[in-house]
Amino acid sequence: MAGRGLGRGLLIQQRFIKPKKTMNKKSFQAVRGMRDILPDDQRYWEKVRRIIGKVAETYDFARIDTPILENVDLFVKGTGAFTDIVEKEMFALRTKGGDKLVLRPEFTPSVIRAYLENGLSRLPHPVKLYSVGPIFRYERPQKGRYRQSEQASFETIGEKDPVLDAQLIQLFFSISGELGLKRLVTQINSVGCPQCRPNYKKALLVFFRKIKNELCSDCQRRLKQNPLRLLDCKNEKCAQLTEDAPQVIDSLCGECHNHFKSVLEYLDELEIPYILNSRLVRGLDYYTKTVFEIWPEEKDGRQIALAGGGRYDGLVKLLGGRETQAVGFAIGLDRMIALMKERKIKAPSKARASVFLVQLGDLGKKKSLSLFEKLQKAGIKTATSFNRDRMTTQLKIANKLGSRFALILGQKEALDETIIVRDMISGIQEVVPMAKIINVLKKKIKSKLVVKRLV
Ligand code: AMP
User: Fold this and answer.
1) pTM (predicted TM-score)
2) Alpha helices of 134-249 — where are they, by DSSP H?
3) Residue 318 forms beta bridges with which residues?
4) Strand pairing of 184-190 and 69-71?
5) Which of 42, 89, 209, 405 has its CA 20 to 30 A from that of 108?
6) Residue 410 — φ and ψ, nearest 5°?
7) pLDDT of 72-99, one tens digit each?
8) Do residues 155 and 129 make contact, with C-beta atoms less than 8 angstroms apart?
9) Residue 289: CA atoms inside 13 Å, Cβ hemisphere, count?
10) Distance 184 CA to ligand 1 centre (A)
11) SS3 12
């Protein structure tokens, strides 16, 4: 069965496309809504991914990587046929064999599929899994909203205790704290469970039917399919009209009420700042009880959530497993990095190569290749410029790169099995036997580091 979303999503035909003659002159650009992460930006990505991995380990999450492509029905069933993600935002494709696949628009259904398919459901619970990688959504591109973005997702499967909802929020604040991101706030709500939500939906329907004609066309359609979604409509008029809508808190059953109260008490205990937001419903079908988002505190109208998630006690069963409670959330890496830059938080630059290898003449070049490998193996970061031949040019490059030492290997040194070590600051040079070069360099680098630290 084709997912409902397929019709409106992007259909990529798997056909060989012959380049047209006119294409020869065209300069290619990245696909709309997708961007290149350039070398200079990689230090931010490395830092964020490293801290996410480190914090995930300390909270006892195990890494799982799932394929980027999944069957479309996984999201139609898991995320929900009437959600924006499935209705409008899927990058779907049909294989030559006729399978309907999709570039994953989020992690949770993929992780639950993998948990069920690989027998992780037989492990002691809770099973705590995390993933980092790209997601794809066919959204209208704008600042902070891309068609390919990267998320880190955390899923705690097999526990209903509200302490785990709070612990996920705490985990986010551990990551953001290590990144130096402060002034963030959690927005939180409960969307109830299959026992109490129908009552709330009824109350919403009564309220919205009275103002139906004033709602946007999307909301008029949602009214039939998923009235909760009207609460997070971005249309200004709808937002105004829904201000007096009934609040979910008033319809929660005893169990959901107590669960929510406990989550808030744990957050109080952890001194995590939060705002109750009765309009936060998070748009996906699978959420039960707690839903939350984490936002920067800035009030400049450009606010966008950094992370979001909630409890999904029904999803494992829906995807073919036993009744298993779970809670999870995802962090948007693109937005975390954008906020770090906005707030002038630095990421470490790449360590410089302390050594530059200058080679002269054919024999020097040949010997340099094997020496370069020896230096790498010894862990000495070395830069080279094998395509340059003149000594002055190569030394200029070494200077530009800020290398502390230059190794000069010419015809004479190659024949004598020696090498010249030049201190790039003092200009002093000494001839060292090739067999001793690694030890000599290690000592020199170490002593310069000590001096640097003492200065
Ligand atoms: P969601 O799965 O929509 O709750 O997204 C979780 C987080 O992923 C959001 O809070 C954003 O930080 C990030 N995110 C989601 N969609 C995009 C997008 N299109 N572009 C950039 N970041 C996104």
Assistant:
1) 0.86
2) 162-178, 197-210, 217-225, 236-241
3) none
4) unpaired
5) 42
6) -110, -170
7) 999 999 888 878 888 889 999 999 999 9
8) yes
9) 27
10) 16
11) strand
Residue 232 near ligand 1, beta carbon < 6 Å = no
Which pair of structure tokens corresponds to residue 29? 């650009």
Token pair of 74, please?
A: 């996984």
Closest by CA to 234, choosing from 314, 142, 309, is 142
What would you measure as the largest C-alpha separation in the chain, in angstroms? Answer: 95
Q: What is the spatial distance between Cα 205 and Cα 223, in angstroms, rounded to a whole number?
A: 7
Please answer whether residues 286 and 244 qualify as being in contact, where contact means their C-beta atoms are separated by less than 8 angstroms.
no
Buried b (16+ CB within 10 A) or exposed e, 283-294: bbbbbbbbbbbb
Omega prior to 296 cis, within 30 of 0: no
3-class DSSP assignment, residue 204: helix
CA distance 91 to 146: 13
Three-state secondary structure call for residue 127:
strand
Give Cβ neighbours of residue 19 (< 8 Å, ≥ 6 apart): none
Tokens of 285: 């079908």
Which domains are present in the chain?
39-196+252-342 (3.30.930.10), 355-454 (3.40.50.800)
Contact assessment for residue 231 and residue 218, using Cβ atoms and an 8 Å cutoff: no
Spacing, Cα 298 to ligand 1 middle (Å): 18
Measure the CA angle with vertex 252, ends 246 and 253; round to 5°.
Answer: 145
Query: How far apart are alpha carbons 242 and 204 in whole angstroms?
Result: 10
pLDDT for res 1: 35
How far lies 447's CA from each of 180, 271, 381, 398, 454, in Å? 33, 46, 16, 20, 11
332 CA → ligand 1 middle, Å: 5
Q: Report which secondary-structure segment, H or E, holds 342.
A: helix 333-342
> 239-288: per-residue pLDDT in tens?
888 888 999 999 999 999 999 999 999 999 999 999 999 989 887 778 99
Q: Ligand 1 center to residue 335 CA distance, Å?
A: 8
Q: Which of 31, 142, 148, 149 to mutate to test the pocket of ligand 1 (most atoms within 8 A of CB)?
A: 149
Burial (CB < 10 A; 0-12, 13-18, 19+), residue 32, is exposed
Question: Which of helix, strand or coil describes residue 39?
Answer: helix
Contacts of residue 104, Cβ cutoff 8 Å, sequence gap at least 6: 66, 67, 68, 69, 70, 75, 110, 135, 136
How many other CB atoms sit within 10 Å of the CB of residue 365?
A: 16
- In eight-state DSSP terms, residue 78 is I
Determine how many CB atoms are found less than 10 A away from the CB of residue 174. 17
Instruction: Please report the beta strands in 67-175, taking only residues with DSSP state E, as ranges in sequence order.
Output: 69-71, 91-94, 100-103, 127-136, 148-157
CA gap 144, 436 in Å, rounded: 53
The span from the CA of 371 to the CA of 421, in Å, is 13
